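Hi, here's the filled form for the chain we discussed.

Project: internal
Contact: R.S.
Residues: 297
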Amino acid sequence: MFRDYYYSLSKHLGQQAGFKQVKFRIKSKILLLDATTISLCLSLFDWAKYKTKKGAVKMHTLLDFDGNLPAYVNITDGKTADNKGAYDIPLIKNSVVVADRFYNDFSLLNIWDSKGVFFVVRHKENLKFTTIKENELPDNKHQHILIDEIIELTGKTKDKYPKRLRRIAIWDEKNKQVIELITNNFRWSCNTISELYKSRWQIEIFFREIKQLLHIKSFIGTSPNAVMIQIWTALITILILKYLKAIAKHKWYLSNLVAFLRINLFVKINLQKWLDEPFIKKKKPQNLPIQGVLFDF
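And the returned structure, exactly as it came back:
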């Protein structure tokens, strides 16, 4: 019930708030895929098997780039690998899925490609391939692009993904490392693909927000149903918070909005007016004469 309510509310509020980011010129729906582990005490949550002395559940999340809110969430036990939890995720044709190297599963990528879904995934260092063609790199701009080439997989991986792929290597100046990406899109510019992968950081921010701001680390109940309800309640809460942030005229930070709402939780106020003008400046009193007026005409 809580899960269905989240999806229904997300559709309704998303239409009202107009969650839309105009960062990319591509028409494809951008979806960011990742998973986060929520640790649980094994002595209390004995059903949440993870390690010998630790319990956990894993939240496989498909984040919509517009609004940075989950389009789909699959909650499994902590042992489920990231790529295995992604097989059940429903995808939209012509959308693009951006993911880290944990989803470098060519059987999974082949399924996505067969469904008309684009992907931008960081590949592992031991990828075996042959170069078919090297594309020309931009001369005067986007100097962080090191390689843009068409490849074919070799060995056993070719049986899992027989089609050609596009491989792009970019230089990450911040972390001083080379990031190697593969995609099944051959039309977008190499810089667009680079920026798409860069946007993947938004899902890391989402996981941090839901854990730190909504305290999803500690649970009230110990049954599987109680844990699921609390996770979906947290998702409903962050959906409403981001909706309020979107419709407010004041430029709120999400952390500030959460803190101020907690302070004013039982205060009777006009919510929209308070969201628009949380800090109303009081007018200074007029400078009245100290000496009284002798004659009043």
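Let me know if anything looks off before we file it.
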